[in-house]
Amino acid sequence: LPFPTFQADHPLFDARAYWRGPVWFDQAMFAIEGFKKYNNTKAAAALQRKLFQHAKGLLGDGAIAETYDPLTGERLTAVNFSWSAASILRLLLL
């Protein structure tokens, strides 16, 4: 998944450790909005598509999680998480 919260090649990166690797949809939303703001809509669309396609369960009937493993796309923390859902809705409406 794009937008891990920590640089993946850093020795302290941990795909499952809070704020040291997992993907948060609200943070990804901010990044995608930045691409759009600076007129890089092609990159924004590609990253958004990648985010949605690789977050496990998101395009099916799975619960929306608080965080996702950036390497596998697996749901990590709290499920049915409202700010993740709100971030996804905002991305779909932009």
Task: Summarize the entry for a quick read.
The protein is mostly helical. The chain has helices spanning 25-37, 41-54, 82-93, and strands at residues 23-24, 67-68. The chain has a two-stranded antiparallel ribbon.
SSE topology string: EHHEH
Spatial ordering of strands, largest sheet:
1-2
Major beta-sheet overview: 2 strands, antiparallel
- Rg over C-alpha atoms, rounded to the nearest angstrom: 13 Å
Mean pLDDT: 94
Notes on the structure:
With 94 residues, the chain is mainly α. Helix content is 41%, strand content 4%. The chain has helices at 25-37, 41-54, 82-93; strands spanning 23-24, 67-68. Strands 1-2 form a two-stranded antiparallel sheet. Helix 1 runs antiparallel to helix 2 (41-54) and helix 1 runs parallel beside helix 3 (82-93). The radius of gyration is 13 Å and the shape is globular. The two termini are 20 Å apart.
